[in-house]
Amino acid sequence: MFPNLFLVACFAVCVSASPMQRRQQEARVVTTCTKPNTAALTFDDGPWVYAYDVSKALVAANATGTFFFSRFLYACIYDADEVKRVQYVYGKGHQVASHTWSHKDLTTLTWDQIHDEMFKVEQALTKIIGVVPAFMRPPYGNYNSLVLQASFTRGQVVATWDFDSGDSVGATPAQSEVSYDQLVAQHPSQVIALNHETIETTVHQVLPYAIQKLQAAGYSLVTLAECTGLPAYQSVGAPGVPDVSYIYFPVS
């Protein structure tokens, strides 16, 4: 669908884009939903091959989710297949958000480096689907005052979670399902659930289980924007058309 001009965006010279503004105010940090009886199923580390199946499982249950995208570890977000995944998820009504460019611990970076990590993903999503995300999830959930200041400057909300399925730290599908059982038994008013779309068993075993359990417990499965009442995007427009005038970025 797109020429290789998108793909070369991952390999050319980096151009810094950090704004020179005073670093005073800090971004809002969202750790849970605000609307009662809502649960936001969120998925980190994509786009990857299981994005389609995550979306299909949600749509079949009349639910929506939130996808935190980065350049990704296995393929560049500008790769033609990755572009299609981002477009597919967005087209199905799910929320697309930033997980930074290269999944570095932002608390170890300088002001300019933090902005660079954020800017590259914003530009990618603008080019691919025409949106500037309003939510950013820092890798590992790690942030400090500098990260919050940079996020505020970029107009972002920093989003973490209040429930972890454990899939990224070695939990088996059975263990993740038990965690969801315990969550439902506690029945908090709202939930932001951390999952990873890159883990096959999460997508094909745990996710259907979680959807059924949460909906049976009376939760509406919605996006982070819907469950917090905050805008999903800073701007929404037409996708870019790849051409040689684009500013391209390296993998690292």
TrEMBL record:
Subcellular location: Cell membrane
Gene3D superfamilies tied to this protein: Glycoside hydrolase/deacetylase
GO cellular component: plasma membrane; side of membrane
Signal peptide (UniProt feature, chain positions): 1-17
Annotated Pfam families: Polysacc_deac_1
CDD domains in alphabetical order: CE4_ClCDA_like (cd10951)
The entry's keywords: Carbohydrate metabolism, Cell membrane, Cell wall biogenesis/degradation, Glycoprotein, GPI-anchor, Hydrolase, Lipoprotein, Membrane, Metal-binding, Signal
Main location: membrane
Cofactor: Co(2+)
Membrane topology: Lipid-anchor; GPI-anchor
Superkingdom of origin organism: Eukaryota
The name this protein goes by in its record: Carbohydrate esterase family 4 protein
Native source species: Hebeloma cylindrosporum
